[in-house]
Write a structure and sequence with these properties.
Shape: globular
CATH class of the largest domain: Mainly Alpha
Helix content: 40-55%
CATH superfamily of the largest domain: Dehydroquinate synthase-like - alpha domain
CATH topology of the largest domain: Dehydroquinate synthase-like, alpha domain
Number of strands: 9
Distance between the termini: 37 Å
Strand content: 5-15%
CATH architecture of the largest domain: Up-down Bundle
Number of helices: 12
Length: about 375
């Protein structure tokens, strides 16, 4: 990438990409006939200069709006329904969601639930309950990510924590896909190194698991391959040189690519992550990064050939499965990612977590069948550092 140019894409949804595209928010609202938006963000970002700049633009253009930022790092069902109440009370007619994956997941769910008669958990990604959703005149959503990892801006689901049983549930509907995505790399410049690392590894996990997942989806495979190449080329630079706008741009696009690719499926990295995100409140990208080599090793008998092809595309010196695993371990080390769960200094109930992980929707697409005992052993391996 020799220079960054402003471009518009329509894959899988309208995307405005380029520097300072977030400053075109008034045009974006006009294009969607939105006159009184609800801005959804997280508490930390609500004081960020990039957020206040967007608020000032709305004020200068005399655009009515309200702000909702009561969102946890792992957004809860209560967060979503509080947002719905805020939306209805202020007579908002659309949503601008700006922030990381938590904000994006919450904002999409808030828009969806403003019209539903069933409760939020009815739309968990199980069976075909999603077909019974009310989709007429759902509020339009503009998604503006500020981290480069989850890719929720191009996803058809939201991960929401059900506090009643401490499980992270995938709430799914095709209409979760935002009506417009604005990818402005400048918004990611303020991301601290540890979050740059964790969210970047999250994007890698999405591409890697999509590439290895069961099933036939060559379009997803192609996107995943290019996404992993972007990670190899750009993540360390974004981490070590936070103002490298070219690396930031590549990682921001890769985040959207990852969630586009994983409509094919995910795997045990996410199966293991979701329970400890919910029970132990550990950052999702960080947990994915910790589990990655252990799950790779478990899946090796099934994915060996695919990984060897991947190493050639990534132009690794050692084009074997072991060469790829070594690259992952070295990358994690350079990003200061802990090698084990033990280093997080928390207590883990592996019996409970394994039960939850086995039921997680990400387990089905994992390339290798996995039992309860094997899931528990993966937790133990990740805790003790057994490869």
């Amino acid at each position: 990438m020799s220079e960054i140019e402003n471009v518009n894409w329509n894959y899988p949804t309208p995307i405005w990409f380029g520097l300072d595209r977030s400053l075109e928010i008034a045009n974006a609202l006009e294009s969607l006939s939105m006159q009184n938006p609800l801005l959804v963000t997280d508490p930390d970002f609500s004081t960020n200069k990039n957020f206040t700049k967007i608020v000032e633009l709305l004020k200068n253009n005399k655009i009515n709006h309200s702000i909702f930022s009561n969102i946890k790092g792992n957004p809860t069902g209560k967060n979503v329904m509080d947002g719905v109440e805020h939306f209805l009370f202020n007579n908002n007619d659309g949503i601008i969601v700006i922030g990381g994956g938590s904000s994006l997941d919450a904002g999409k769910a808030i828009a969806f639930m403003t019209k539903q008669k069933e409760n939020l958990w009815f739309f968990e990604d199980i069976g075909d309950n999603w077909t019974r959703a009310i989709t007429h005149q759902l509020p339009k959503v503009i998604a503006i990510p500020t981290t480069a990892g989850t890719g929720s801006e191009t996803g058809r689901a939201s991960l929401i924590l059900d506090e009643s049983d401490k499980t992270k549930k995938i709430i799914f509907h095709p209409s979760f896909l935002p009506d417009l995505v604005i990818l402005d790399p400048n918004l990611t410049l303020s991301l601290p190194p540890h979050l740059t690392a964790a969210t970047g590894m999250d994007a890698l996990a999405h591409c890697l698991e999509a590439y290895c997942a069961r099933g036939f989806h060559p379009m997803a495979d192609g996107i995943a391959l290019e996404g992993m190449k972007n990670v190899k080329d750009s993540l360390l630079s974004a981490y070590k040189n936070p103002d490298d706008i070219f690396a930031r741009s590549k990682m921001l696009v890769t985040s959207s690519m990852g969630s586009t690719a994983f409509q094919k499926g995910l795997g045990a990295i996410h199966s293991l992550s979701h329970p400890i995100n919910a029970v132990n409140d550990i950052h999702h990208g960080l947990s994915n990064a910790i589990f990655m080599p252990y799950v790779l090793q478990f899946n090796e008998p099934i994915i060996n050939q695919r990984i060897e092809l991947l190493t050639k595309y990534l132009e690794l010196e050692n084009s074997t499965f072991d060469g790829f695993l070594s690259w992952i371990l070295k990358l994690r080390d350079e990003l200061a990612i802990p090698h084990t769960l033990k280093e997080l200094n928390q207590e883990f109930d592996f019996e409970l977590l394994s039960e939850m992980a086995l039921k997680d929707p990400s387990t089905g697409p994992n390339p290798r069948d996995i039992s309860f005992d094997e899931m528990k052993q993966l937790y133990i391996n990740s805790y003790e550092g057994i490869l």
